Amino acid sequence: MTDTAEHDDQVTDEDRGARLRERRLAAHRAARRVFARFGFHRTLRERLAVLAEAEGVHDLDELSDVYGDGVVEVLETKVAGLLGTEAAVFFPTGTMAQQVALRCWAGRTGNPAVALHALSHPEVHERNAFSEVAGLRPVRLTGEPRLPTAAEVRDFGEPFGALMLELPLRDAGFVLPTWEELTEVVEAARERDAVVHFDGARLWESTVHFGRPLEEIAGLADSVYVSFYKSLEAFGGAALAGPKELVEEARAWRHRYGGMVFQQFPTALSALVGLERQLPRLPEYVAHARVVAAALREGFAAAGVPWARVHPEVPHTHDFQVWLPYEPEVLAEVAVRTAEETGVVLFGGAWDRGGPGLALTEVHVRADGLEWTAEDVKAAVAEFTARLPEQVR
Asked: Where in this chain does the record put each Aromatic amino acid beta-eliminating lyase/threonine aldolase domain (predicted)?
């Protein structure tokens, strides 16, 4: 065995994954064409430049915030106005915001059970925080890749104090129900005397699919959480919006959870910039995501890929999934190599296993994606599929 071969044998899967991530980020930063350039891919200097964009969005000559006053209060008022709620409170993370909201509701209903989807964020990405930290008891309504139905809510076999709906449901493909389905689900929860909380991390971009303004959508729920960084490109942060009494109690719990941060002006300013600059553009991104999705389907069909899926077929938001019949490791390497060789990033995210011989990735369309025509997408698909292993294709 050569020294090189021996060294290769000692490289772990974690090492290979780290190297691939480094290559993917480098290729993305160097690319001439991408669907989205996210803030967290930028340098510190580039991120700091966002604060300069706040000139004209907020008075930069006022004193900076201390423990949630000043610019943070301005942001809270702005969010409450957009969502049509009595009040809103800033949180450093959405995980904290939702734990606080639902434990407050549990105190009011006397029932710590929270009905939710098996693919919802607290169940998949928060290390059982609801039960381990907040004293809540999650109960799963369904694991199907769609939102729960009114029948599933109405006929669930045990009582629950709150229904949490993630809109859109990210791990199911950024899917949303129809407006009629959503109103029926909310009504079913009300029939059971349960409160309704929206995990609206990405609620901002749901208006196109529902055909309703934000305040009408948020108005269905008793409380709503929204994120500032997922679509608005802020540095981080979240808000919990709802009745004034709930919001005031949430402030007390935010303090207890360690979320009363001394100064938050960089995040708050970046959120105000996002609300001013990004929020009005989201419908445009959603519309173009549907052009991209259709071109991807046509491109893979023309390339002769034996099985390929865009999910949802017509995206509900500006994010969606692509499924292909290959191992994730194969697709991850081909995606990076294609980006390195062509300067065009078709798939800039990680690939996850979706089943035996299947892998999926997420496609995110933002401002840079608007520059792609359908023909550009099909050409990029041809470049990508040409690099797939012949014996697999």
From this structure: 66-297
- Read off the tokens for 182: 């959503």
At residue 385, the pLDDT reads 97
> Tens of pLDDT along 154-205?
999 999 999 999 999 999 999 999 999 999 999 999 999 999 999 999 999 9
* Integer CA distances (angstroms), 36 to 230, 289, 346, in order: 12, 11, 10
pTM for the predicted model, two decimal places: 0.94
Q: Distance of alpha carbon 305 from its chain centroid, rounded?
A: 29
Residue 100 zone, left/alpha/beta (φ > 0; ψ -120 to 50; rest): alpha
Question: What residues form DSSP beta bridges with 195?
Answer: 162
Rounded Cα distance between 312 and 310, Å, is 6
- Beta-sheet strand order (sheet of 309-311): 309-311, 319-324, 358-364, 352-355
Tell me how crowded residue 296 is: count the other CB atoms within 10 A of its CB: 23
Regarding beta strands 309-311 and 319-324, do their DSSP bridges make them parallel or antiparallel, or are they unpaired? antiparallel
Both 273 and 287 in a single domain? no
pLDDT at 1 (0 to 100): 44
Residue that finishes a domain, picked among 277, 293, 315: 277
Per DSSP, 225 falls in state E
Which of 144, 206, 196, 143 lies closest to 174 in space, CA to CA?
206
The average pLDDT across 343-371 equals 97
Domain limits for position 309: 3-41+281-386
The Cα–Cα gap between 232 and 45 comes to 19
pLDDT tens per residue, range 352-364: 999 999 999 999 9
pLDDT in tens, 212-248: 999 999 999 999 999 999 999 999 999 999 999 999 9
The answer to whether residues 175 and 219 belong to one domain is yes
What's the rounded Cα separation, in Å, for the pair 169 and 184? 17
**E-only strand ranges, the chain:** 87-91, 113-116, 137-140, 162-166, 195-200, 223-227, 238-242, 309-311, 319-324, 352-355, 358-364
Residues 264 and 291 both lie in one domain = no
Q: Which residues, at least 6 apart from 371, have a Cβ–Cβ distance to it below 8 Å? A: 33
Helices and strands of the chain, counted as H and E runs:
16, 11
Please tell me what DSSP assigns to residue 168.
S
Closest CA to 288 of 368, 174, 383, 177: 368
